[in-house]
Design brief:
Length: about 150
């Protein structure tokens, strides 16, 4: 499972998996057919207010990240489909910003990777014997050896 990032103006990769557009507004100069989208997820994009406030000002990048993460945490229904797709295989997150290092897709990928990691740890803990069961087994072993 991999989460890739790509600017909407770049051609699709054959091994890029499912492709998701992460913008509230349709990118300028692009036809929908040219993007080969799996889905356009407007609700996972930063809010209009946050997008306008940020204005791609590099000095606001740390605050933008924090505010966008708050928006994501308050709206799991928006990013859950991406998480399920990423669990199945490679996905590509499409963004229209000029800066490849400071855009919403960068923040979203880090957020999704953290969610995947947490879920994997939770699944591993759930499938492993609990400490209570281990204690019960040790007690049974002690009593049966007497």
């Amino acid at each position: 499972m991999a989460i890739r990032l790509k600017r909407v103006y770049e051609p699709p990769d054959p091994d890029g998996g499912e492709r998701y557009l992460l913008e509230r507004l349709w990118p300028r100069g692009i036809r929908q057919a040219d993007l080969q989208l799996t889905a356009w997820l407007r609700d996972v994009a930063p809010s209009h207010e946050l997008r306008r406030w940020y204005g791609h000002d590099p000095t606001k990048w740390p605050a933008f990240q924090a505010r966008y993460l708050e928006e994501l945490q308050s709206n799991p229904a928006a990013w859950e489909p991406l998480l399920r797709s990423a669990q199945r295989g490679t996905i590509t997150l499409l963004y229209s910003a000029r800066d490849p290092e400071r855009n919403n897709a960068v923040v979203l990928r880090a957020f999704l990777e953290e969610q995947l990691s947490q879920r994997q740890r939770w699944d591993e803990e759930r499938s492993a014997p609990s400490s209570l069961l281990q204690c019960e087994a040790r007690i049974e072993d002690k009593w049966s050896s007497r």
